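Q: Can I see a sequence and its folded structure?
A: Here is a first one.
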Amino acid sequence: MEKEGVRRLICQTTLGAGESWENLNFFWKYIMFRAFLRDVFADHERQENEVKQSHLDWTIVRPGAFVDGNRTGHYRHGFPSTDKTAKLKIPRADVADFLLQQLTNDTYLYEMPSLSY
């Protein structure tokens, strides 16, 4: 991207990466991410480190677990890691909605907003 002059990168990892680990409940922390999805979670952590070290204008979006459903446009984003009220799930359509908005919005430039209900 840098070689071709592309500056903006919006990528998606997962709620639970980095400091958002504190948003998760016992099930997601210890059953899903420490047992079943250990390697996938480690890939998300590596991805975030690589993106943050780049010279791109990046935003890393951390959505909760994907579920089926229509786009609502009514979701929470950018909530702190101390927030324990997040539902930890979100329809793919709302994740896509938020990702597309980041193309023309610099609110979360060089940040890693969490995304859920």
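Q: Show me another, different protein.
A: A second, unrelated one:
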Amino acid sequence: MKRIGDWMQTFTGRQFWVLDPRPEEICIEDIAHALSMQCRYGGHTTQFYSVAEHSWRVSSMCSAEDAMWGLMHDAAEAYLVDLPRPIKSGSELGSEYQRIERELQRVICERFGMSEREPPSVKVWDDYLLHWEGRDLMSPHPVPWFGEGTLELPTDVLVPVSPEFAEMALLDRFRRLSKYAEVV
């Protein structure tokens, strides 16, 4: 059967068609590894901080019923890479990216038995963490970020973990939250 677009090779050696994703081709090990190797904010942080760590932290902030969605909210980026918000939300490229991302996220939800609808709390914690990350992992802001100063952030400084730790933390959390084990 002919597939749409070309394929990429994943960390575990699979072929993956980003424009024609199928649930059985989604692999949590590929997601965890790829996200652990991607730096948030297009790499414009003061130190390496992975999308995997961000996802693990969002999941840890969510209620038990929303924790899996929190963990997987950026899972499509394992196959698409993280696109900075100004491009993602303010350009034609961003519009097309979001269309592809929505379809891929739908397939990821199907693969892991999740609702296709992101719980509102995930976005709340995602934005909260964005401000904590911005305070502790970015150079001083040239102008205030949206909502800056309106949130009570932890006094603890956010100290990033290694990519290897972030990968294992994401996998461990997934396995604890999941009702089925991933077969590689």
